Amino acid sequence: MKMIDLRSDTVTLPTPDMMQAIAEAELGDDVFREDPTINKLQELAARTFGKEAALLVTSGTQANMVSVLAHCRPGDEVILEADSHLQYYEVGGLAAVAGVTPRLIEGDRGRFTAAQVQEAARGEDIYFPNTTLLEIENTHNRAGGTCWTPSQVAEVAKAAHDLRMKVHIDGARIFNAAVALDVGVKDYARHVDSLMFSLSKGLSCPVGSVVVGDSDFIERARKKRKMLGGGMRQAGIIAAPGIVALNKMVPRLKEDHDNARRLAEYLGMFDGLKIDLSTVQTNMVLVDVADTGLTGQEFRDRAAEKGLLISVFGPHLVRFVTHYGITAADVDEAAGIIESMLPRCSGNACAIG
Hints:
Layout: E1 4-5, H1 16-24, H2 36-49, E2 53-57, H3 60-71, E3 77-81, H4 85-88, H5 93-96, E4 101-105, H6 114-120, E5 131-137, H7 150-162, E6 166-170, H8 174-181, H9 186-189, E7 194-198, E8 209-213, H10 215-227, H11 236-249, H12 253-267, E9 284-288, H13 296-305, E10 308-309, E11 311-314, E12 317-321, H14 328-341, E13 343-346, E14 349-352
Parallel strand pairs: 1-10, 3-4, 3-5, 5-6, 6-7
Antiparallel strand pairs: 2-8, 7-8, 9-12, 11-12, 13-14
Helix pairs in contact: 1-11, 2-11, 3-10, 6-7, 12-14
């Protein structure tokens, strides 16, 4: 049976160009800074974001952790949105690895305001930890792929900088935000001290993320990466598809956004499903299935039986993610599978079809 996999854009496979680049990559020892392909990727990433330097790391979680470690000391405090990936999905690393305390802001679709930052920052007091870092997630995963605009980032970053805090963007899908809003990634990066982006999500690389910032920050992050076991050797085979991704894969993200919108509009017509179309800004669709009488897990399992893979995002919430390799025809087929699962009534009795 054919499976349509809409669980995440992490399931993407590398393009033929990426496979060729992997096979042909020049290699060296990156701990000695002698891998020419890694050096090329890092230089390209720094230029793309208008920053002084960049660092290839193994994953988005490692990217965020080395950034926190480079900006903060144990006992410090980080302000971040309550449902942010760094708080929700990164295994408690803020406390367990970095030794810092999260101070959470309740956002609106993942976004918050300068006034909320000012209220959360507690200032100098013998009883309080030092608030040294503000973290922003763009796009915001648990909000359904919603975007911060550059002006919104500028506003909260200024508030943080005025309070002598650093600002980091978890930009795992920052290119999705930039494409959706038709802005440049430099328009985000210029307002913050560091930013990470994932190669292995919408950009379709097999592994890796990149952190960008000024040279001093990247040197600190490089040492923290080594501490976390991320001192890579001949890792140009990871970097090579990243170069292809930055050069070729960004414009096609619009196709993923169009497919997500197409899917959301189809599903929004079906009784029993609730979708907030205002949150469908990039490549994600969140669907409340409570009115079907199924839990999120039951809905996911029944979809899988029919050839559609999706993710559970809450007791009655499921998520669909479009990505490279998913076509408009796949979206139409996925909508048909969902329609076949919805309650069908005969007389006074209803049952899931």
